[in-house]
Fold these 3 entries.
Entry 1:
Amino acid sequence: MVSQTGDFLNEGTASIDSLLVKDASSTFINNGTLTNQRFTTAASATTTNNGTITSDFLYDSVGVFNNNGNVTVNFDIGVAYNSTFINGTNAYTRINRDFYNSTGATFNVGNCMITVGRDWYNSAIIAGPAGPSCGGFNIAGLSLNSGTVGSIASNIDLCDAGHPVTNIDGNSGTIASTTTYCTCSNNCVMVGITEQIPSSDVIISNIYPNPAETSITFIKQSSV
């Protein structure tokens, strides 16, 4: 658990069974690779992913999740209680089972089509990119909306694999007139991540002058 204004910066490879980031000013920043079973951002904490996260279950409860890299959820994702999930420009998010966005939460799809492997449920806010960019969801199972999808200033595409007559399986909420159905082809693709060279891999081949009084110069040898 990261809490009480704590910080967790991952620059390498981390495998954690369950990770909870909670409390205001607590942050988790991933620049490397993280795999785990359950990952939750809660109680006004912030997660920023610039690398790759793979989790069985991912939840956001009164938190902020900024994805600038790759997120793969093996089972379910849940965003709730005024949380915000932002899929950044050219970021990758894939949900292999169910998507839940509820209770005042805002999910920003970014500018690509997110795959949902089973059911899609929205009772909160789905936000999207300003036109002419196009982002949204490819949904394999049920698609049910009782919240708000899009706005006059954005372009969100919903594509239900069953191609129901009403474009999604059920709607009792608000869907903006700018919403399209199965017209976007820009599926989210994995983002290439350039890893930083760890300090242990940097070899110093020469230092001069030696001895030195006020300054020295390091000559770095290329990493092996």
Entry 2:
Amino acid sequence: MTPKEEFIKIYTENIKRPGADKLLEYLKKSDFFTAPSSTRFHGSYEGGLVEHSVNVYHCLKDYLSRPRTKELYGMDFSEETIAIVALLHDLCKVNFYTTEIRNRKNDITGKWEKYNAYAINDTLPYGHGEKSVYIISGYLFGEGRLTREEACAIRWHMGFSGIEDKNLIGKALETYPLAFALHVADMEASYFIEGSKK
């Protein structure tokens, strides 16, 4: 099963809120399933974004199933909540990347050569996590809207690797256990599952 097929399967089996079907259609019409996850780090290849989203889903499911995690958090999260925050946390990267031609020196021949590279072209400069929440909220609203816990998990999934005030990040991660869990899953997927891929 391809990452796209797995994403759609997890999404359609778990996310049933009003507007979820329209959000999936938006993703299918966008570059979500072909975009990279970054320009030169984890998932910096075609399809890296959807692959990363699926990896975060599996990491989050695993993390939240650990007995110690359940004991610490004192709560269980629904399958729908897990799917929403994991699969949709990086929607901010939809229509975010472009390709450009760059030059580099070939170490073997010593000659300069052209190559295709990903670059950022942010068509909606609204931040990172908050932009994902904004996009989702355009589809899942009313009875289907994100819960406060879900919205904060997506908003703060970058944790302390973000550029915001560290006290604010700490308070968010302390207040919303799902935000901390999503951050852990995102880092695990980024650095340990995808980090070594070229």
Entry 3:
Amino acid sequence: MTSPEASRRVVEAGRARGVEIDIREFPEGTKTSADAAAAIGCERSAIAKSIVLTLDDREQVVVFASGDTRIDLKKLAAVAGAGKARRATLEEARRATGFAAGGTPPFGYPGPVRVFADHALRRHDLVWAAGGTPTTVFPILLSDLVRVAGAEWVRVSE
């Protein structure tokens, strides 16, 4: 398989941080956590979705959330020191991460982005994350994911 350019960037970013990334491609799509879990054959809770959110209409952040949870925007705003939080627009997400929504990986962004990891992910040692496109994913130890991304553990799921 020849990986898409976006996935190659994820592999390079992982390698630069000491982690080998094994991109897996699923032509049927892995855009949602339910799609990804069905394609991979794992529990939805093992999907580490990267959600791009906007704080106070000016700062984009990424939250790693378990595929079977939703982010409580008020909790996120509180832990991030913001007045409010909302989902980032597609343009804001791409500008902050360099990737399209539905395939946003947990690292490999063009510039610094604050990253948070919700405690619900701790149910799994191995999680699956988006590989840069809506059809690619990769397995990664949760400890490596948090370390490589520089994520801060928080409790922000509903």
